[in-house]
Specification:
The protein has 354 residues and is an alpha/beta fold. It has two domains: 7-145 and 333-345, Rossmann fold (3-Layer(aba) Sandwich), CATH 3.40.50; 147-326, Dihydrodipicolinate Reductase, domain 2 (2-Layer Sandwich), CATH 3.30.360. 28% of the residues lie in helices and 19% in strands. The chain is globular. The structure holds NADP nicotinamide-adenine-dinucleotide phosphate. Residues 10-11, 13-17, 36-41, 83-86, 88-89, 106-107, 147, 177-178, 180-181, 327-328, 331-332 line the site of NADP nicotinamide-adenine-dinucleotide phosphate.
């Protein structure tokens, strides 16, 4: 099964690039992507640089990864999916959008732009409609947040109004694939945990309140609650585990919170093929969630797109829980694919006729 919208993946030789390729190779709206890259993967067949544990899509295995300018990308794709390193991505993504092709990006460069917005549709899809379009002739650039932020924002969104939080504390146990390929040196993480990931704690503190905030009078007002993070790299292949403590003013009891999570499915009824239903899975077992058991939560096309919440403990004024989300799927490429599907469904962009 394949759609009709032409796509390109930027950074096709990297970890997120290959998750994009896997998700787009058999998609009801999108055609399999052109593979754009440089450095060690340029000129090589996809199969020869494939890093994921899942199979390389057979129909793309022999396709070569090629270097291309933003102009060439804009002429051969109706949508660009960016897995470029942050810092490099910004000007390339701007140039593609300026040429009328929407960009769905994992990089952080455009996350804090006033108009091209950072979106997790279930959490702040409404921001997309309400934000003014500052660059009328450009196509949109939509980004997903940092990979730890997606799961945190999804888990908090349904319970914020019950809890009325005063402060939010999170300690992350982040997987190796979060650092891309080849990532962290084996000797740094074997028999070890590294209690530092560059810029990660700052991104969690900055991006989470923006996602959970409101747009008033055309201006984004971040959630006025401090978010304090500790981030560590652990020897897990995929899936970020997070221990969350919310200091709360509200009177939530665990049953009420569980119901809020269970009833939360804001994308129900919209034509968004990769959206998980429900987006949050609450586990009752005392030892869940775990990366090895829960990273692929969701079914069929939405495998790896749901967030798993567990070990919910409410000792007023503190709510404590663990959550797990797949950093490279829901927190990475899958987040951008859902953003593209959501933006199409909402008419934020329309594909050009191939
Ligand atoms: N990994 C995650 O879980 C995750 C989650 C959310 C967001 N992100 C973000 O997603 C982006 C990609 O991350 P990643 O983990 O996939 O990193 P990665 O494995 O290092 O992949 C980046 C790829 O981009 C290629 N590249 C570099 N400059 C390029 C250029 N000018 N044109 C085309 N290709 C270029 C690199 O090629 P060479 O290696 O040959 O130089 C590499 O294959 C980053 O911005 C990251 O912050 C990652």
């Amino acid at each position: 099964m394949s759609g009709s919208i032409r796509t390109a993946v930027l950074g096709a030789g990297g970890y997120i690039g290959q998750e994009f390729i896997r998700l787009l190779s058999d998609h009801p709206l999108f055609l399999p992507p052109a593979l754009i890259g440089r450095g060690h993967s340029e000129g090589r067949r996809l199969a020869d640089v494939w890093h994921l544990a899942e199979e390389c899509p057979p129909e793309l295995a022999s396709q070569k990864i090629v270097r291309a300018t933003p102009r060439a990308i804009a002429s051969q794709a109706d949508a660009a999916f960016s897995a470029l390193p942050s810092g490099i991505a910004g000007p390339i993504e701007s140039e593609i959008a300026r040429r009328g092709v929407p960009v769905f990006s994992n990089a952080s460069d455009h996350r804090l732009d006033p108009s091209p917005t950072m979106i997790v549709p279930e959490v702040n899809g409404a921001h997309l409609r309400k934000q003014p379009r500052g660059r009328a002739r450009s196509a949109p650039i939509l980004t997903n947040p940092n990979c730890s932020v997606t799961g945190l924002a999804l888990a908090l969104a349904p319970i914020l109004s019950i809890l009325k939080p005063i402060s939010i504390h999170v300690a992350t146990y982040q997987s190796l694939s979060g650092a891309g390929f080849p990532g962290v040196a084996a000797l740094s993480v074997t028999d070890n945990i590294v209690p530092f990931i560059a810029d990660e704690e700052e991104k969690i503190a900055l991006e989470t309140p923006r996602l959970l905030g409101r747009v008033r009078g055309g201006r984004l007002r971040p959630l006025p609650v401090p978010i304090l993070a500790h981030c560590a790299r652990v020897g897990v292949r995929e899936g970020h585990l997070e221990a969350v403590t919310v200091e709360a003013r509200g009177l939530g009891d665990p049953a009420r919170l569980r119901k809020a999570w269970r009833d939360f499915d804001p994308l129900q009824g919209l034509a968004i093929p990769s959206a998980p239903h429900p987006p949050i899975v609450v586990r009752a077992e005392v030892d869940r969630p775990q990366p090895i058991l829960d990273r692929w939560a969701g079914v069929e096309r939405s495998r790896g797109m749901a967030v798993v919440v567990g070990r919910v403990r409410w000792t007023p004024p503190y709510l404590r829980l663990f959550l797990l989300s797949h950093n490279a799927v829901r927190g990475g490429a899958g987040g951008s694919v859902i953003n593209a599907e959501y933006a199409l469904a909402r008419g934020v962009w329309g594909a050009r006729t191939p």
